[in-house]
Amino acid sequence: MKADNIVVLNKGQVVQQGTHEALLADVRGAYYSLANAQQLSMREDLGQNPEILDPEKTANDEIVLEKVSLDAEDQRPEKPELKTKGFVGSFMLFLWEQKPQWRWYGLMLLSALGAGGMYF
């Protein structure tokens, strides 16, 4: 707001240039849209003092927001709720995914049983 010159770029091209007050005077300009978007987010953050960005606006100004769906991508189906498995279910799933390694697991189990049986 205190800058001597503000340059507004859109895809690398200068679309507006001037002081804060001059750029806000053009209500159809990109800077005006950006300033209002920031003001809306500041109103949510600050609550009590929405006139910080543009002191010329009064508290009686009313802004109406609408949520508009632009394409079908916004209308995604809800994710299904995941069911949690218990310890046995998780262990069985682990063994099923490790099916190619079952020979080695069997060999390790037999070795562990043999080593543990030596102490009896």
Output the number of helix runs. Answer: 4
- Number of beta-strand segments: 2
Share of β-strand residues = 5-15%
* Domain tally: 2
Report mean pLDDT, rounded to a whole number. Answer: 75
Based on Cα principal axes, name the global outline.
rod-shaped
H/E element sequence: EEHHHH
Task: Give the arrangement of secondary structure elements.
Elements: E1 6-10, E2 13-18, H1 20-25, H2 30-46, H3 87-97, H4 102-117
Antiparallel strand pairs: 1-2
From the structure above, extract its key features.
120 residues, 9% strand, two-stranded antiparallel sheet, 4 helices, mainly alpha, rod-shaped, single chain
Describe this structure in words.
The mean pLDDT is 75. The protein has two domains: 6-66, no CATH class; 87-117. It is mainly alpha-helical. It is 42% helix and 9% strand.
Summarize the structure in short:
It is built from four helices and two strands. The protein is mainly alpha-helical and 120 residues long. The chain starts with 5 loop residues before the first strand and ends with a helix.
